[in-house]
């Protein structure tokens, strides 16, 4: 799909998702309006994990194939990973302040999200200290792959901690009103499209950046 | 396996001559213990003791990894090592073994000092902690060796290693602190979960790094 199509689609879908989250979905009985943050928080959390999976798989593909396009995909998705872990954490905190009466709890999912963010940032710091293109790709993909293996182990390790985070979806979940489910689904789709657009756009910029970098090297040489 | 033992032998021989790695880890670890003992009143807060121990272990461990990294990258020693006709995975295993021996040796001196400072009895509990330390240290150096080799290629070697190492070894720290806390609190129900987590971490990273190490040292 072309980038322009994705741009138009996300431009249409985000207001639709906003309508469903703010006007269509009913107000939650105990938490009130603050619960509506869920329609933004959950898709962003899902997308931050999507970034980690893309980073890991693209890194593995680069190590197998040696094609720089995989490295490009890896670091573009890691950059979106930083963005989406940050927005997940911030939206979660805004929700937690009135509901838990605290900004932060050392809970499984919160710790995991924070560690994911730190791994993404570490990945980018590593890249910024590696000046050569090939070496940067090779070493950062090794780190990207190892970091992805860390996510499930981290998940297991944080199971030791106490649980505070509400479980809405999946096994043991509290379940949701059908209209709330619809609003969440639409929000997921909207953010999914936005993610695809941002990723495609970032890859296009990365290609230009690499060309500029190459030309600079040629001029200096 | 002979080249593996040759490299371990080389690392230990160097360490015996200059004693840089173990002594720097040891003093740094002890200083961390001292700072924590001054910073917190641990007499009525049993819960923070395992944390103090593992902060000292992991900071000292990072220092040791940094030492082993600069040992190979100074004077391009790594280049010489790469000329050896051996599998890169074996080279990794040798470096892990060397790092493990040095880190563990330093920890085994830090541990009794910790026990004295924190009024622990020298009994079976300490043996348990030694066992946890073995598992935790193996996990720590299994990923740390790879990360130190990665950071050896960067401009800011000593800075980038902890930035990569600490988030990656978080499961090790959580599991080790939890199990040490269970042993000190004499309530070892459910200790098999954190211990098996330490085992899983080591196995996953030893295997993955063994397979992937040639990409790390390739020039």
Average predicted confidence as pLDDT of chain A: 87
Cα-atom radius of gyration of chain A: 19 Å
> Low-confidence stretches of chain B at least 5 residues in length (pLDDT < 50)?
none
Helix content of chain B: over 70%
Structural category of chain A is mainly alpha
Q: Figure out the total of helices of chain B.
A: 9
**In sequence order, what are the helices and strands of chain A, one letter per element?**
HHHHHH
Rg of chain B (C-alpha, Å): 18 Å
Distance between the termini of chain B: 24 Å
Number of E-type strands of chain B: 0
Keywords:
heterodimer; A: 221 residues; mainly alpha; 6 helices; 78% helix; globular; B: 219 residues; 9 helices; 83% helix; 0% strand
Show the helix and strand layout:
The complex is a heterodimer of chains A (221) and B (219).
Chain A: H1 3-24, H2 38-65, H3 68-99, H4 108-128, H5 133-158, H6 178-220
Chain B: H1 2-18, H2 20-39, H3 49-73, H4 77-83, H5 88-117, H6 124-152, H7 157-168, H8 170-184, H9 192-217
Helix pairs in contact in B: 1-5, 2-3, 2-5, 3-5, 3-6, 3-7, 3-8, 5-6, 5-9, 6-7, 6-8, 6-9, 8-9
């Amino acid at each position: 799909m072309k980038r322009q199509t994705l741009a138009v689609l996300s431009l249409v879908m985000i207001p639709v998702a906003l309508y469903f989250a703010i006007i269509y979905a009913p107000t939650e009985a105990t938490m009130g309006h603050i619960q509506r943050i869920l329609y933004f928080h959950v898709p962003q959390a899902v997308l931050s994990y999507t970034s980690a999976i893309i980073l890991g798989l693209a890194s593995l593909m680069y190590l197998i194939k040696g094609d720089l396009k995989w490295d490009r995909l890896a670091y573009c998705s890691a950059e979106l990973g930083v963005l989406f872990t940050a927005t997940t954490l911030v939206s979660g905190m805004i929700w937690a302040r009135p509901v838990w009466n605290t900004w932060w709890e050392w809970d499984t999912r919160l710790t995991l999200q924070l560690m994911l963010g730190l791994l993404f940032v570490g990945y980018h710091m590593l890249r910024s200290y590696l000046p050569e293109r090939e070496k940067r790709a090779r070493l950062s993909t090794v780190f990207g792959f190892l970091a992805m293996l860390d996510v499930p182990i981290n998940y297991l390790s944080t199971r030791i901690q106490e649980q505070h985070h509400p479980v809405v979806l999946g096994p043991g979940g509290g379940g949701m009103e059908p209209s709330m489910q619809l609003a969440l689904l639409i929000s997921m789709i909207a953010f999914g499209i936005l993610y695809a657009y941002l990723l495609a756009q970032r890859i296009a910029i990365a290609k230009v950046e690499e060309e500029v970098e190459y030309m600079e090297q040629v001029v200096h040489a | 396996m002979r080249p593996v033992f040759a490299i371990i032998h080389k690392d230990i021989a160097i360490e015996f001559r200059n004693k840089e790695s173990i002594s720097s880890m040891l003093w740094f670890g002890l200083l961390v213990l001292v700072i924590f003992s001054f910073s917190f009143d641990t007499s009525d807060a049993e819960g923070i003791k395992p944390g103090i121990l593992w902060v000292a272990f992991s900071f000292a461990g990072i220092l040791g990894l940094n030492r082993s990294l600069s040992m190979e990258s100074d004077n391009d020693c790594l280049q010489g090592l790469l000329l050896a006709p051996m599998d890169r995975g074996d080279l990794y295993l040798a470096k892990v073994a060397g790092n493990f021996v040095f880190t563990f040796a330093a920890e085994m001196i830090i541990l009794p000092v910790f026990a004295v400072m924190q009024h622990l009895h020298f009994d079976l509990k300490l043996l348990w902690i030694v066992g946890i330390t073995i598992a935790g240290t193996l996990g720590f150096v299994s990923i740390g060796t790879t990360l130190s080799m990665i950071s050896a290629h960067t401009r800011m070697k000593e800075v980038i290693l902890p930035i990569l190492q600490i988030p990656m070894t978080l499961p090790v720290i959580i599991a080790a602190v939890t199990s040490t806390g269970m042993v000190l609190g004499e309530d070892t129900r459910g200790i098999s979960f954190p211990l098996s987590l330490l085992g899983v971490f080591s196995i996953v990273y030893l295997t993955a790094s063994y397979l992937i190490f040639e990409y790390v040292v390739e020039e």
